[in-house]
Specification:
alpha/beta, 3 domains, 18 helices
């Protein structure tokens, strides 16, 4: 044998020739028996090599070059939404802005940006200002809308409910565009209401006596806080920010309690009317009068209503009118009436006619709207109401509700004849395929399940944003054409 040491192996190869042979044999298919590895070891006995994985390196410095326009694709939905927004007049939204050319101060945020954020939020089923604020930092489409502009949830929340008249005008202008393009006819509309949970708890309702006591206590708290501000010794103990926050919260509570007390006379009138209809001297009428009217201290304009699930919750009644020809929402109204029969049909017709400039000739409603007074007024106005008759209380008369009676007026006779005809039944079916589906869309996909704002004025603003988002989403290509 030679005493010379083995020559060094090249870089990357094992020094042991046997190991080298093993590596080579193992890398060529068919060179080694499938069941036997090197040195006669089986696959079960031979250890597996470590897996090769991609692992994060969060300390690696990289350079990313790009612009906000690259955050979304060229055909993304948000680009179409922005095209619609650019074609609208936003002067009414810009009117309250105090930052003007030649004056000192910080620049205001473009109303088009805030409107686009809320419209796209409604399209994405987002109804919270805090959630929208989070998406503006994490979601590319929302960051694309911002284009580098910063917002916060205070600004977003204030904008959503702070431009009621301007928002209503914008909704009307969108409808006018659809009317001009021949999509919205306005001749036949359907109407339906849905009860949406209010931003109030069931435990927030108080009787008149309790409300008066809470209001007196609240006024006393506000008075004490104001005295602390005027007292230098007491005022120095707390920061100006904390003092302002406490005083603002106390004044807000006092204001809500005053609104709650102001709602009591109206509730008492409705209670008297309900008792009169039931019979003041009857058992049911007396039971109604014995109940004390109760108002929420959180949202004084909310009312306890029967919900679709059969329960009772604080809610508001959202009324929507839909054009049957285009399925566009042409009317929006909110109220705190628990029943649809409280004269809600005629005001909605008037609103639709004012928005579209077209005369409503046929109006479809569900059975909850049936009132003789509404039938008479609609007949005088030349409007055909398509409303099913309420089931007769007497079981023997079921199915005979539309039969003519000697005392029927001309309006009632025309309604019965219309609803008994095959054509009338087919027209009434359109209500289910329009209003019902639109209501379901706004409830399930446009964040209209529960309101996060208080007061009917703010609730209507939120509803208008949802309805506007629905119309823009359906007719975006037409509006940008």
């Amino acid at each position: 044998m030679s005493d010379q040491p083995p020559s060094p192996a090249p870089d990357g190869f094992p020094a042991d020739s046997s190991a080298l042979g093993a590596d080579l044999l193992g890398s060529v298919p068919g060179q080694v028996d499938a069941g036997v590895g090197i040195a006669g070891a089986t696959d079960a006995e031979q250890p597996k090599a470590a897996p090769r994985l991609r692992t994060p390196d969060r300390f690696q410095v990289v350079m990313n070059c790009g612009c906000p326009d690259e955050l979304v694709g060229p055909k993304h939905q948000v680009r179409i939404l922005w095209q619609v927004i650019e074609q609208q007049d936003w002067s009414a939204f810009s009117e309250p802005i105090k930052a003007r050319e030649g004056n000192a101060g910080r620049d205001a945020t473009d109303p088009r940006i805030l409107a686009a954020l809320w419209l796209y939020a409604a399209i994405r089923n987002v109804g919270s200002a805090r959630e929208l604020d989070r998406l503006c930092k994490e979601s590319n489409p929302f960051k694309w809308i911002l284009g580098g502009v910063t917002v916060n949830y205070h600004m977003l929340a204030a904008f959503r409910v702070g431009h009621g008249d301007a928002l209503d005008e914008l909704f009307t202008r969108i409808l006018a565009t659809l009317v001009d393009k021949g999509l919205v006819k306005g001749k036949r509309i359907t109407q339906d209401g849905m009860r949406v949970r209010a931003a109030a708890g069931a435990g927030s309702f108080r009787s008149e006596e309790r409300l008066e006591k809470l209001l007196e206590e609240s006024r006393q708290v506000v008075k004490e806080l104001r005295e602390q501000v005027d007292n230098p010794a007491e005022s120095a103990k707390k920061s100006a920010r904390k003092k302002a926050a406490r005083q603002r919260a106390a004044e807000d509570r006092q204001h809500r309690l005053e609104e709650a007390v102001a709602q009591l006379p109206e509730l008492k009138e409705k209670q008297q009317a309900a008792a009169q209809r039931a019979g003041n001297n009857g058992k049911r009428g007396k039971a109604i009068l014995e109940k004390s009217p109760r108002v929420s201290t959180t949202d004084p304009e909310a009312r306890v209503m029967k919900m679709p699930n059969g329960g009772f919750n604080p809610a508001v009644n959202v009324q929507l009118a839909t054009d049957t020809a285009s399925r566009a929402i042409v009317g929006v109204e909110v109220c705190n009436e628990g029943s649809d029969s409280a004269g809600l049909a005629e005001p909605m017709r008037q609103q639709v006619e004012a928005r579209t400039g077209r005369k409503v000739q046929e109006h479809g409603l569900d059975g909850g709207y049936v009132k003789t007074e509404d039938l008479e007024r609609a007949h005088e106005q030349g409007v055909a109401l398509f409303i099913p008759a309420k089931p007769a209380r007497n079981l023997d008369n079921r199915g005979k509700e539309l039969e003519p009676k000697p005392g029927d007026s001309e309006a009632v006779s025309a309604w019965k004849k219309r609803m008994a005809s095959a054509e009338g039944k087919e027209i009434y079916k359109l209500r289910a395929s329009t209003s019902e589906t639109v209501n379901a869309d706004l409830r399930q996909h446009r964040s209209l399940k529960q309101f996060a704002v208080r007061g009917l004025e703010k609730v209507k603003c939120v509803t208008l944003w949802c309805a506007l988002a629905y119309n823009v989403m359906i007719f975006a290509k037409v509006l940008t054409g």
